[in-house]
Amino acid sequence: MLQLTEHPIQRQIIGLALSILAIVVVLVGIHTGFRSKANQIENQLDNQKARQEIGLSIYQRLFSAKASVFKLSTLDNRLELEVVKKRFDDNLMIIKEGLAILHNGGVFKDEIATNIPGQNSMNLVANYYLPESEGYVLEVLELGPAIHNLEEQAQLLYQLIKSRIDLFPNEPADLQVRIINLIKTINTILQRTQENAARILYDSQEKISHLSNEYKESESLYDSFRIPVVVIALGLSAYLLLVTLTRVGKVIENRKQAEDQLQLLLDTTVEGIFGVDNQGITTFVNPSASRMLGYSPEELINRGNHELIHHTRSDGSPYPASECCMLEVLKGGTVHTVDNELFWRKDGTSFPVEYSSNPIHRKGKIVGAVINFRDISDRKQAEKRIRTLLQAIEQSPVSVVMTDTNGNIEYVNRAFEITSGYEANEVLGKNPRILKSENTPAEHFKELWQAIVSGQPWRGELQNRKKNGDLYWERAYIAPVVDESGSTSHYLAVKEDISLQKQQEKKILHQANYDSLTNLPNRFLTLDRLSQIIKEAQRNQHMAAVLFLDLDDFKKVNDSMSHEAGDKLLIQAAKRLKDSVRIDDTVSRLGGDEFIILLGSLHTEKEVLPIAEKILNCFKPPFILDGRELILTASIGISIYPSDGDNPAELLRNADTAMYQSKEQGRNTFNFFTHEMNKGISRRLQVEEQLHGALERNEFQLYYQPILDIAKHEIIGAESLLRWHNPALGEVRPDEFIPITEQTGQIIPLGQFVIKQALCMTAQWQNQFGKPFKVAINISPRQFRDPNLVKQIKAALAQCRIPRNTVVLEITEGVLMSGHTYIDDALSELNNLGVTITMDDFGTGYSSLSYLRRYPFGNLKIDRSFINDITIDPADRELVNATIAMAHGLGITVVAEGVETEDQLNYLQQQDCDMAQGYLFSKPLPAEEMMQLLQKKQKLTTA
Questions:
Q1: Distance between terminal CA atoms of the chain?
Q2: Are the beta carbons of 577 and 682 closer than 8 angstroms?
Q3: Which biological process terms from the Gene Ontology are attached to this UniProt entry (predicted)?
């Protein structure tokens, strides 16, 4: 039990009783003075009790303020800084209220935390009046300026720490030094003020003892009484004695209450408090300290404090008492507030504490110290969670931005700095609109603010601008941060950089709408644009045009020169087309070698003519492919809105129909759509439809046209020619169905059919007539690309058992133009088989004389276009003469096709042409008629 004094109250009572008996003759006036004196003592005792309670509250608040100052020095987070600063300011406010009442008098109220079960705090109410003697407020006069100075220094410390946090890691080099020096100054002020507060407690206790002694002076009151009034005086003295004894009892009770109140404060406070003497021996301990340490008070008192509870550091190393911060004040050291050390319990476990050590002075000497401490395990765990959360936010791959309610930035993480290019110190205090670009609609931001101001989160995409000016996309989640009262205190933005995703989306959208080879709009985008053009034409009562363009003989380039060469040609053609139209017109690639040109805002059909002519003219200059010149033409079909259709599908279909009409007219031209053209398209569709399954239905038949040895006038062979008779279409011309089979790929099975049928029929004729009768078979470029062609020919030769030297394979020059190695290999392998290779239609294509020398040709066939006018056109004669001479010079046999007159035959014979075929000798015949011809005539003449 903590006692306020050691003077025995009993001695005061006995002395007072003797004095009363001795002054029975004291005058009534002296007795009245005694009563007045007793009342004054009672009031002063009550006043000292209130003063003692106010001093205790000031002492505890100074301890809390000291802990807050230490905590301020360690903070690196703005939010925690504000919380600790407010806690410090609240303590100073209570201290200043207490000092004001000690200086001027009044009622003091405070709420002190306790550890009483079911009672977390205790209300303290003290009624204090200003004493007449100025000596009573000496400590107050000293504390007032010190507290004012402390408040100013703490405010300066807060500003310096705030600057350090805001400027980190670029704070001035001397900033930390200033903070440390300022903390030393504040600690000095706090030490001085706590000592003054302690003096208030001890001074109050001494004055309570002194007031009790003043009752002795009441004995002198009775000296003034005269003997005649002894009886009265004795009666009065007896009465006074009774009153005095009653009041002395009250003094004792008040003193007991003061002692109990002080003990209650020590017993119920949540903080651990214990005292040590100047040797570090524990002198007293409160219940909270005993409970937290796991020791009973008896186990702590009179034992070395440091060795018992403070012997080991947090890292497990020994903690010598000579280095103990808690005991440093015993040596006159600085008052410390420490929160990075451990106290050790009786069971050997430890817990983190925050403690403060304050010296006890008597007669100018340090006689001990009072230590306040608290278990900060929960706080340390919370701080760890906060640090972990801050680390997670700092290391998060998404940007995190926090602003106040006015939109001023208070925090950004590292991801924000990386994404935006701004350092944190460049944006703190500024509005996020510094990132705003002109590309995000204002309505977007209006919706954002409407949402968050109403307390709702907002999600959306923003296009912002980096510090260097680059634009970037972010997917943002912005929400208000609500405090304990339900009010919005901040706004939090979590943003993810989706620039790469946007680029991919843009790329995918481009790929979905544009041709990957030519970068022209594709079919999908073309139809969309055509729909827009039609709507605009309807609105403005204008016309529009669709030009359907197909490159003539483009397939030959693909077949003969490779698809890579074809792609290069398409790219060049696309560029020429774009350069030939108006800036607002659309050039698109429909697929393959088909292009679409969309023309809008037309007033008459005549406006299309110069554009169509310009497009055709753009193909006149030769194309350069791999160093070679190539002439390419185009066929164009034109449909007009609204006369040829009022929707994209109809306009495209009719333009396609007109394009096929241009093909029919010899190509390299354009045609406007007419309704009569649909008949031709219908015919083509019928042909395509009937071709499916025609081979299986045995609708194809081989015809043979004899080949004549000019010198001997003898049939030495025949060219096999495919004919098609369809029940629905009748006889279909080869030049009508062969191109379609080339496009559909049906030429491959048809080619196999022709090879097998021709070889087997020729073998039959050879066996019947006993002569080496030859057969010529046409091989298309598409067939030559078939890797199984040589195997198929070998298989047919073996199956039909025909001499290989009687088989002639005719190929056009287009097969050779690709220059692929597989062409060389196939020709070489066929030549090694003994099969004769003929260059067909020589002079009509992209002839290169080097082909004749490079490849193993046995025959060369002159096209009928040169034979037709050989007797009347000198140029044709010279070309034929040169061809025959050149071929013979290379050891190649010459065949002339399309011979229809005797004059033509005679001229060819004069020029030593080797062979001929044509209607002069025979038209193509079915196999049966060909056999009859061979039986009837072994030698043909013109007679």
A1: 158
A2: no
A3: cellular response to nitric oxide; regulation of DNA-templated transcription
Q: φ and ψ at 315, to 5 degrees? A: -90, 5
Question: CA torsion 795→697→717→748, rounded to 10°?
Answer: -50
- Rounded CA-CA distance 203/557 in Å is 116
Tokens of 26: 């004291």
CATH classification code of 396-504: 3.30.450.20
* Cβ neighbours for 622, distance < 8 A, ≥ 6 positions apart: 629, 630, 631
**What pLDDT score was predicted for residue 3?**
42
pLDDT in the model for residue 173: 77
Residue that the structure tokens 């077949």 belong to? 559
Q: Where are the alpha helices (DSSP H) in 709-788?
A: 734-744, 747-769, 781-784
Distance CA 576, CA 101 (A): 98
Distance CA 470, CA 555 (A): 47
By residue count, the chain amounts to 943
Query: What amino acid is encoded at 439 in this protein?
Result: N
* pLDDT 10s digits, 588-602: 998 889 999 999 999
Q: What is the mean pLDDT of residues 103-122?
A: 72
- The structure tokens listed for 340 are 């990075």
DSSP secondary structure of 299-362:
HHTTSBHHHHHS-B-TTS-B--GGG-TTTGGGGT---EEEEEEEEE-TTS-EEEEEEEEEEEEE
Mean pLDDT across the stretch 870-879? 89
Task: Determine the topology of domain 272-380 in CATH.
Answer: Beta-Lactamase (3.30.450)
Cis (ω within 30 of 0) for the bond into 397? no
Q: What is the mean pLDDT of residues 263-282?
A: 82
Q: By C-alpha distance, which of 248, 253, 242, 246 is closest to 216?
A: 248
For residues 652 and 684, the answer to whether their CB atoms sit within 8 Å is: no
Percent of residues, the chain, with pLDDT higher than 90: 41
Structural contact between residues 143 and 197, judged by C-beta atoms closer than 8 angstroms: yes
The Cα 35–Cα 232 span in angstroms is: 17
The answer for residues whose C-beta is within 8 angstroms of residue 316's C-beta and 6 or more apart is: none
Structure letter (DSSP) for residue 832? H
| Residue corresponding to tokens 């079919």 | 523
Q: Which of 373, 370, 366 is nearest to 345 (CA)?
A: 373
Q: SS3 letters for 834-852?
A: CCEEEEEEECCCCCCHHHH
Give the torsion sign (CA, 296, 302, 307, 310): positive
Is the pLDDT score of 577 beyond 90?
yes
Residue 671 carries which side chain, given as an amino acid letter?
N
Provide the pLDDT for residue 512. 86
Answer whether 171's CB lies under 8 Å from 424's CB: no
839 and 867 Cβ atoms separated by less than 8 Å:
no
Query: At residue 244, does pLDDT exceed 50?
Result: yes
- More confident of the two residues 187 and 777: 777
Indicate the range of 186-195, 222-231, 339-348, 924-933 predicted with least confidence: 222-231
- Among 21-25, 431-435, 511-515, where is mean pLDDT lowest? 21-25
Neighbours of 70 (CB within 10 A): 21
Predicted confidence (pLDDT) at residue 219 exceeds the cutoff of 90: no
pTM of the prediction?
A: 0.42
- Sole residue written with tokens 């009250």: 250
Neighbouring C-beta atoms of residue 413, cutoff 10 Å: 21
pLDDT, position 221: 45
Q: Give the Cα separation of 295 and 642 in Å (integer).
A: 104
Gyration radius of the chain over CA positions: 59
Q: What's the pLDDT at 134?
A: 45
* Residue 818's pLDDT band (cuts 50, 70, 90): low
Whether the Cβ atoms of residue 828 and residue 847 lie closer than 8 Å to each other? no
- The CATH classification number of 694-936 equals 3.20.20.450
Q: Which CATH fold would you assign to the domain 514-675?
A: Alpha-Beta Plaits (3.30.70)
Phi, psi of 584 (to 5 degrees): -90, -5
